[in-house]
Amino acid sequence: MKLKNRRNFIKKASAGILGAITSTSFTSASAKSYSKIIGANDRINVAIQGLGRRYPAFKNSISNKKNNIHLSYLCDVMKSQREKAFEAFSKIIDYKPKLENDIRKIFDDKKVDAILMATPDHWHAPGACMGMESGKHIYLEKPCSHNLMEGKMLIAYQKHYDKIVQMGNQQRSSNETIELINGIHNGIIGDAHLAIAFYHNTRTRVPNQTKIAPPDGLDWDLFQGPAPRREYTNDTWNYNWHWYGWDYGTAEMGNNATHELDIARWALQVKHPSHVDVFADKFQFINDGWEMYDTMEARFKFSKNKMITWDGQSRNGYQKYGGGRGTIIYGSKGSAFVDRSGYKIFGLNGKLVKENNSKSKNKESGLALGGGGNATDKHVTNFFNAIRGKEDLRSPIEQGSISQTLTHYANISYRIGKSFDIDEESGLIYDRDAMKLWSREYEPGWKINDL
Q: Residue 442 contacts by C-beta under 8 Å, 6 or more apart in sequence?
C-alpha cells in the first residue's frame, strides 16, 4: 500500500473506530483530576468478579484494616468457586459478603464503589465498561482487553465516566522495578534501545475437547457472556479456555507476555510500534487440545531505532536467560535485568555494577498459577488510595491498554501469517487482513456500546 493511500486508510479507519475517544493522550492523570465518590477516610465497598486462581491475591489488601475496605460481594458463575472463596475470606474478615452469580446485579447496587475483575479474558473489557457505566471504579486484571477495539473503548469509557481504572500489571508497583526504571530514564545504562522480554514455562498436555453437559453449578450461558454461544466442551471453564480457540482467551501473549512487555515498553519510553513480525507455532504435544501457538518469538520495531523482542515458550522449560520470566534492557553504556524479585545492572564489560532484590521479602509469584505477593498487595492498595485521591495510579488504563496492544499485534500477525506496519500514533494497522481482527464477534446484545 502506498504511503498516500495508507494515510487515507488510517484517516478513514480512525474516524470510524476511534470516534468515541475524545483524546488520544496517554499521559497518566493526577488522582486529583478524577471525580470522587469516596472521601479520603471513608470505607470503600468492593466486589470481586471472578473467583478462580487469582482472587487469593486480593485477600491481604482487602483484609488490611488500614485500607478500610468492606467486601460486599463475591461473584462467580461457578457455585463451588463462590463457596470456596467465601470460606477463605471467612477466616480473615469478621462479616459475611453476599454471594452472587450475575455481576449485572452488583452493577445495580449503588452502595458498591469498586469492582476487582479477575474473570476470563473475554469478559474483561465488556465487564469493565458496564461497571464504569454503572458508576463503579475498576481494578481490571490482565489482559485488560480481548482485542484492539476493546482497548480503545476502555480509554473512552474511563474518560467519559471519569472513573479510576487500574490495570492489574502489578509489577508497576514493585519498588525495585520503579527504582530501576527511574534509573534507566535518568541514563544509568545510557540510551536504552533494546529490550528482550521472556517467559518460559512447562505447561503440559491439554485435554482434547469433547461435548458434554456443563458441570454442576456452572452457569455456562453467563460464562460465555460476550462470546458467541456454543455447546459446552469438557474442561473449558477450568483454565483451559486459555487454549481452546480465540472466543475466550488471548493465548500466552495476553496471559503472560502482558507483564514483561509492559516493563519493556516502560523502560524504552515508547508508544505503539511501527512494525511487528512473529515466528510462532505449536511444537509440543502436537495432538492434544491446545489450539494455538505454544512457542512465539515476536519483534516490535519503534521509531528512533528502538526494538522490543518477545521470547515465549509455554511448554519448554529450558531457561536460556537463567530464569522463568523477566526483561533485559540494553543501553549504550550497559544493560539491566529485572524480574519480580528485583534487578541487576551491568557495565559494558558484563560485570555487575548494582543489584537490588527482594528475595528475602514477600516477593511476587513468578510462574505459579494465580500468583500474588507483595507487588499485588501494593498495586491493589494503590488502586484504593487513588479512589480516595491520595495517590496517582501506578498503571492507569490509558497506559496499560497501550502495552496490551503489543500482545494483540503479535496474535494478529500469527493468525494472518504475515507481518505488518502500524501507525505509531493511533495504533491502527496498515493491513486490511489484520484490521479484520481489530475486533471480534459478539453475542447479540453484548457488544460494548459506542459513547
A: 226, 227, 228
Residue 28 near residue 164 (C-beta atoms within 8 A): no
pLDDT surpasses 60 at 1: no
In this prediction, residue 39 carries a pLDDT of: 64
**Total number of domains constituting the chain:** 1
For residue 226, what is its C-alpha cell? 460476550
Q: What's 193's domain CATH number? A: 3.30.360.10
Nearest to 406 by CA among 311, 277, 272, 247: 272
Gap between the terminal Cα atoms of the chain:
32
Residue 51 class from Cβ within 10 Å (0-12 exposed, 13-18 middle, 19+ buried)? buried
Question: Is-contact 385 66, C-beta < 8 A?
Answer: no
Cα distance between residue 250 and residue 245, in whole Å: 9
Q: Is 198 inside a domain boundary?
A: yes
β-bridge mates for residue 279, sequence order: 297
Residue 123 phi, psi (nearest 5): -90, -20
Per the CB < 8 A criterion, the answer to whether 65 and 36 are in contact is: no
pLDDT mean over 306-324: 96
Inter-residue long-range contacts of 379-382, CB under 8 Å, 24+ positions, other chains counted: 379/166, 379/168, 379/170, 379/172, 379/173, 380/57, 380/58, 380/61, 380/62, 380/116, 380/139, 381/61, 381/64, 381/67, 382/166, 382/173
**Number of other residues whose CB lies within 10 A of the CB of residue 277:** 16
Tell me the C-alpha distance between 31 and 345, whole Å: 32
Nearest alpha-carbon partner for 69 in 45, 96, 41: 45
86-126: pLDDT as tens digits? 999 999 999 999 999 999 999 999 999 999 999 999 999 99
Asked if residue 178 is part of any domain, the answer here is yes
Place of cell 471480534: 440
Domain of 281, in residue numbers:
172-205+235-371+395-430
Whether 51 is in a domain gets the answer no
Q: 295 and 311 in contact (C-beta within 8 Å)?
A: no
If you search the block for the grid coordinates 459478603, which residue do you land on? 97
Q: Quick check: helix, strand or coil at residue 270?
A: coil
Q: What residue type is assigned to position 115 of the chain?
A: I
**CB 244, CB 289: distance < 8 Å:** yes
Please state whether the predicted TM-score (pTM) of the whole model is above 0.70: yes
Task: Provide the percentage of residues in the chain whose pLDDT is more than 70.
Answer: 87
Angle at 98 between CA 96 and CA 99, to 5 degrees: 120
Give the pLDDT confidence of 343-357 residue by residue, as tens digits: 999 999 999 999 998
Q: Tell me the average pLDDT of the chain.
A: 91
